[in-house]
Specification:
This protein is of the alpha/beta class and 354 residues long. The chain has 2 domains: 12-277, TIM Barrel; 286-352, Antifreeze-like/N-acetylneuraminic acid synthase C-terminal domain (Type Iii Antifreeze Protein Isoform Hplc 12), CATH 3.90.1210. 33% of the residues lie in helices and 16% in strands. The chain has 14 helices and 12 strands. It has an 8-stranded parallel β-sheet. One of its GO terms (biological process) is carbohydrate biosynthetic process. This is N-acetylneuraminate synthase.
């Protein structure tokens, strides 16, 4: 088995241990077919602290056949029944948008990503555009021919794993590694929109960390900020969350997305969590060092001790401050002879006994 990479570069960002969590604003199809709205999503994603914004690249007829019905959550969010292909046609990311969106992303210093939702043709288009990584949704985790095809470009491969078993995830990883691409990041997620707390199963992410030889992150479909922050605390290196300008907009994903206020709250809480988590090294902090001698303890005479008197449990004890003989010497000096008179409440030093 190949050793898991500890760091993967996505554009100008490093993802992995020792680096801040890579946060993706999943704009997806929340542009509602409007370039102006897509540009506003870029601006606002940067404003609320995302490292990257991600859209979806597809033509509707590349994704579904004509008569595939909507998912239940889509019916509820859109507010009417129509075929998936009818819905998706209205949500295509137009090809002439790419230069304008990418230009805006560069101006705002936010990374542009897009999911090749339309299969091989979408991969080719995104490769031509020069995306720094490929992110595949959960629906393509078992699309091994597509994963293998994209993996040959040797870019980071980010995989959603909703609906998947651990064996299915392994097969996807193995097909990517079979063409010499080890730059793999697997995101735990649950394919419900929105996802209820009891469906999150965040411990599965820990299983993935233990059993899979790749970097792990989390793609969030819950309402609010608690779950993604918990995922970071458990070790997620990437957080992806659906992003909208307004939850009241019409469209399949707006209701289950984070609006700017919620997304910024999530980013702020993740950054604070990173500070709290600190490093893996256990050592005194700078603030603790100045407290060591005040808080720790030393051997102390609890009554006056005469020269030549033995140290016993009746005349010594352990008290603050920690500037004298450390407590570890307590049993070693019992029965020793005092070389000098020691006043009550004075610290005992190394040269005070024979």
């Amino acid at each position: 088995m190949n050793k898991r990479l500890l760091k993967i570069a996505i554009g100008n960002k490093s993802v992995g241990e020792g680096h801040s969590t890579f946060i993706i604003a999943e704009a997806g199809v929340n542009h509602n077919g409007s370039l102006d709205l897509a540009l506003k999503l870029v601006d606002k994603a940067k404003e609320v602290g995302a490292d990257a914004i991600k859209f979806q690249t597809f033509k509707a007829n590349q994704v579904v056949t004509k008569n595939v019905r909507m998912a239940d959550y889509q019916k509820g969010n859109v507010g009417k029944k129509e075929s998936q292909i009818e819905m998706l046609k209205k949500l295509e990311f137009k090809e002439d948008w790419y230069p304008k969106i990418i230009k805006r992303c560069k101006e705002k210093n936010i990374i542009f990503l897009s999911t090749p939702h339309g299969g091989f043709e979408s991969v080719d288009l995104l490769q031509k555009i020069g995306v720094p990584a490929f992110k595949f949704g959960s629906g393509d985790l078992t699309n091994l021919p597509l994963l293998k095809y994209a993996a040959k470009f040797k870019k980071p491969m980010i995989l959603g794993t909703g609906m998947a078993t651990i064996d299915e995830i392994r097969k996807a990883i193995n097909i990517i590694k079979s063409v010499g691409n080890n730059k793999i990041i697997v995101l735990h997620c649950t394919t419900n929109y929105p996802c209820a707390a009891e469906k999150v199963n965040l411990r599965a992410m820990q299983t993935m960390m233990k059993d899979l030889d790749v970097m792990i992150g989390y793609s969030d479909h819950t309402i609010g900020t608690q779950v993604p922050v918990m995922a970071v605390a458990l070790g997620a290196q990437i957080i992806e969350k659906h992003f909208t300008l307004d939850n009241k907009m019409k469209g399949p994903d707006h209701k289950a997305s984070a609006n700017p206020e919620v997304f910024k709250k999530m980013v702020d809480e993740i950054r604070q969590a990173e500070i709290i988590l600190g490093s893996k090294e256990k050592k005194p902090t700078k603030g603790e060092i100045k407290n060591i001698n005040i808080v720790r303890k030393s051997l102390v005479a609890i009554r006056g001790i005469k020269k030549g008197e033995k140290f016993t449990k009746e005349n010594i004890n352990i008290k603050r401050p920690g500037t004298g003989l450390p407590p570890k010497y307590y049993f070693k000096i019992l029965g020793k002879i005092s070389k000098m008179a020691i006043k009550a409440d004075n610290l005992i030093k190394k040269n005070d006994f024979i």
